[in-house]
Amino acid sequence: MKKFAVLLYPDFSLQEITCLTSSLTLWFGEKIDYIASENKEYVSEDGLHVIPDKITTEIEITDYDCVILPGTINPLPALFDDKLIEFLKNGMNSNILFAAISSSPILLSKSGILDGKKFTAGYFMQMTEIFPFIEKENFIHKGIVEDDNVITGIGMFFREFAATVLRRLGYDIGHNFMRKQSDDYAQDELTFYWSDEDYKEFLEELKGYNDKEDKTNNKLKFAELNIRNMRNFDIEKEMYRLAVELIEKRYPVGWGGAGVIHTAKGHYFTSVSLDSANASAVLCIETGAMIEAHKFNEEVTHCMCLVREDENAPYQVLSPCGICQERLAFWGRDVQVAVTTEDNSLLFVPLSELQPYHWSNAYLDDELEHFKD
């Protein structure tokens, strides 16, 4: 018989793994050990109180053939549980089958199990920006992903997840175990983002864990947690929409370009480049939108420049040129700017990332001309 383990942590989700665990125990007579880092009561997200059979310091992970990681609505307690992460690390380069669903693949990322492996997960995509140990390039937007000795899944595909694990382990489950196939879903249906308010609340909670790690001199290299620099995907998508709309209206054929500015008051300003027979009189595409914001004394928070070569060409983001970067610096170095990317994906970064050695670093903020509300 094979040996199975289910890891326990606060707010673990039973619903996402019971198709798998009940099949193992009821259909195939397998025994499952429920393991945690501490010998205490753990409460599932639906209120079930569970006491582990064993604790991580008393056993070896390599004694198991399959380790199952349930999802959790709040992954931070497990993510910062050093004993749990160390237990998982001891399974690296082994033949253990790791089966992680919903948010739990982040635990495999932190422990190194997912290094170099394709995976999926049901957590919010902002986590890939916050935690550097997540290999974002290996994230696959599918319901179930299987790579080497790791099976990962999104929570809504708990049946497919169970079936994939059971078949991988050689159990005969027939052909009617599943319903709708995960491949029937489009990528945007499998991509999740927090609302701005929920994301802010998460970052605030994360700071507490970050401070705790500071005290042990084991600080993770988190992304900047300044709420001002937090990416707002709704704003970014609306700026892109407005730029495309203006280009198609102002330049229906041939080349086209548009600039979009967003302000702290929630306003959007757009502009195009100024044409002139004298090239030295031409202004950058986004300059007009900056001037509009300045005219109304509104603080600029985001800037984008979008172009296309002709009406049949794809749209491309242009990073702000040096002069526009100097103009934007008036509103501070944390202004979010759209930048050119190799895969033409939409990416905003703080202005400071484009200017790490800017001359203004030699002066105090109050010594420079800057925005005043």
TrEMBL record:
Keywords: Coiled coil, Hydrolase
InterPro entries: Class_I_gatase-like, Cytidine_deaminase-like, DJ-1/PfpI
Domain DJ-1/PfpI: 2-165
Pfam families noted in UniProt: DJ-1_PfpI
Coiled coil: 199-226
GO molecular function ontology, one term from the record: cytidine deaminase activity
EC number: 3.5.4.5
NCBIfam families linked to this entry: PRK08298.1
Name of the protein in question: Cytidine deaminase
Provenance organism: Allocoprobacillus halotolerans
